[in-house]
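Thread: Newbie trying to understand structure tokens

Hi all, I'm a second-year student working on a class project, and my supervisor (Dr. K.) asked me to get a predicted structure for one chain before our next meeting. I've only ever worked with sequences, so writing a 3D structure as a token string is new to me. If someone could post the tokens and maybe explain what I'm looking at, I'd be very grateful. Here's the chain:
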Amino acid sequence: MVNAGAPVLMPWRDEVAAVLLGWFGGQEFGAALADVLLGTAEPGGRLPTTWPAAEADVPVLATAPVDGVVAYDEGIHLGYRAWLRAGTEPAYPFGHGLGYTSWELTRLTATPDEVRLTVLNTGERAGKQVVQVYLSRESSAVDRPERWLAGYAVVRADAGRAERVTIPLARRAFQHWDRGWKTEPGEFTVHAGFSVTDLPFATRVSAP
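---
Reply by user tm_fold:
Sure, no problem. This is what the structure looks like when written as tokens:
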């Protein structure tokens, strides 16, 4: 059990069966923790941060203001984007999270407006999953992250049941800032999966 509000090192993580992250619990934290550990409730959260395997792997360590100013020298390569650019494997990537069942994605289709896919609960009990969609651009005239989050959907399904899911893609997800929001013409790759590094499906769409 980890009770922390930011990523911490866990050199012991491979010596335990599972890691449960509680963040900052309120007065019902103990009851909620018991429900999750006993299987009454599904641990359905997903990481909004990247958790390092070693401190030396962290792309940015200095985050304290200097003379009242925080310098973002990494530009648009913030958070998980910095990890992707560095090519370093974290302990747990952005978007990662497990529950008490297993999932499979099929039938991916995409347009510049939306992504559609089927999410199948392949386990033996009901559960919750967060399907995540990322965009990337292999060749670009502007500085871009290796890939970036474009949308997501929360899915709940009983054991053995499949749900057809539609995830809208905002026009802004394809745009970059150049003294205003602009769209570079050409093709983008749409990735779908369960974290920024677990993306088994991909297809291409033209810029809207």
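A couple of things are worth pointing out once you decode it. The mean pLDDT is 95. DSSP finds two helices and nine strands in the chain. Feel free to ask follow-ups in this thread.
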